[in-house]
Write a structure and sequence with these properties.
Elements (H helix, E strand, L loop, with lengths): L3 H9 L7 E6 L7 H8 L8 H11 L2 E6 L24 E7 L8 H11 E15 L15 H11 L2 E8 L8 E2 L5 H4 L12 E9 L13
Helix pairs in contact: 1-2
Length: 221
């Protein structure tokens, strides 16, 4: 879902969303129609997920499609490499990952797919679950949670430009905080934020692909 903080992030970085062809990983929708309507000056009230995302991306100049193995759209299983799906390589000016990658067991294949789908100079927009997320009957959300180090090393290995990176302390709020090595240990602790809100935090990042090189696995050490 396009949560409120991701919508806020899009609005703040609207100049980097330059139109063209867009591909969502998974069939997404607008989480908070009222808030997203207010910041973009559009009306998302009463729209289903297809209509809401089509309206938003059309407003930004994009023609939207999505990857999904069980719905209409481009049928790709992101647990497996899409190297042989040549027709989709470099096909999109914008590729988005709004809460999909943590549900894909094969992370290498998933992030390689994002790389391959994005054209050179295109952008990749991620909303990645970070700290907390003790939902799903207390068993946690998806397979993985992400750290800023993941983004830093992914970008370094593949020559991505980090256009913007923010910390969203709670998925139900539009709040965005600056993320630095100094304040991340503080803001990632749920006791250091608003007690009344669930601690479902995210890293929200906009990356630009700067070459047509093959995807490279990051190395931490």
């Amino acid at each position: 879902m396009l949560i409120s903080s991701a919508a806020n992030f899009m609005k703040q970085n609207q100049g980097h969303f330059k139109g063209g062809k867009c591909c969502d990983l998974g069939d997404q929708g607008v989480f908070d129609a009222k808030y997203t309507s207010e910041i973009f000056g559009l009306d998302f009230e009463g729209l289903n997920k297809y209509q809401s995302m089509d309206l938003l991306y059309s407003h930004l100049g994009y023609k939207r499609t999505f990857v999904d193995i069980k719905d209409k759209g481009i049928k790709l299983d992101l647990n497996y490499s899409i190297k042989t799906s040549i027709n989709n390589h470099g096909a999109f000016d914008l590729v988005t990952n709004h809460g999909t990658s943590e549900h894909i067991f094969n992370q290498a294949s998933c992030f390689e797919a994002i790389h391959l789908l994005t054209r050179n100079k295109g952008v990749m927009f991620h909303s990645l679950n970070c700290q907390g997320w003790a939902d799903n009957n207390g068993l946690g959300h998806g397979f993985y949670m992400y750290q800023p180090q993941f983004i830093k090393l992914l970008a370094k290995a593949n020559g991505y430009k980090v256009i913007d990176l923010k910390y969203s302390p709670s998925s139900v709020l539009p709040d965005l905080l600056e993320l630095t090595p100094e304040n991340y240990p503080l803001i990632s602790n749920p006791r250091n934020y608003k007690e009344a809100f669930p601690h479902f935090s995210l890293l929200i990042v906009l990356l630009q692909k700067t070459s047509s090189n093959d995807f490279v696995f990051p190395e931490e050490y």
